[in-house]
Amino acid sequence: MTLRYDGIYYNILTTAKVEITFKGSSYYEYDNEYTGKAEIPESVTYNGNTYSVTSIGDHAFSGCTGLTSITIPNSVTSIGGHAFFECTGLTSITISNSVTSIGEYAFSGCLTCSIALLDIVSCQIFRRNIMNIICGY
Question: Which of 58, 51, 62, 39 shows the shortest CA–CA distance to 12?
């Protein structure tokens, strides 16, 4: 089941967890569904149930050229493949140290992006996705 909370779409994974997703049945169905500054909450409440936001799904923000900045909270442990693919307007990403998994090409096409890593996060996790932006590869 998909729900919408403060303009962001979520898939319910379990009775306690959700992941961020895209609007519609396919990621390419809607263009630029997220714009401006996005602050992902640690949890969302829907129909009286509170869910922890634990992941950003594959293609969740893909193609959102109007998205300018995003803050990823401590509750998120994984970022899916192509999650921010071609988010050409994205200039700032803040990632907490709780993120331990990032899918392929998660940040591909975010060439003007500055990324703030909170606490100690290994560059190895990000090497394939944002090579020269953080690690100089």
Answer: 51
Distance between CA atoms of residues 29 and 17, nearest Å: 25
pLDDT digits (tens, 9 = 90+) for 40-75: 999 999 999 999 999 999 999 998 889 998 999 999
Give the pair of three-digit tokens for residue 20. 């961020």
- The upper half-sphere exposure of residue 38, i.e. CA atoms within 13 Å in the direction of its Cβ, equals 28
End-to-end CA distance of the chain: 40
Q: What is the pLDDT of residues 88-114, one digit of tens each?
A: 888 888 887 788 888 888 888 876 556
Pairing state between β 2-5 and 8-12: antiparallel
User: What is the pTM assigned to this prediction?
Assistant: 0.82
Alpha helices in 59-106 (DSSP H): none
Task: Return d(Cα 90, Cα 36) in angstroms, integer.
Answer: 9
- The neighbour count for residue 31, using CB atoms within 10 Å, is 10
Q: Which of 47, 45, 46, 98 is nearest to 71 (CA)?
A: 98
Cα–Cα distance measured from residue 6 to residue 41, given in angstroms and rounded to the nearest whole number: 9
How far apart CA 115 and CA 125 sit, in angstroms, is 13
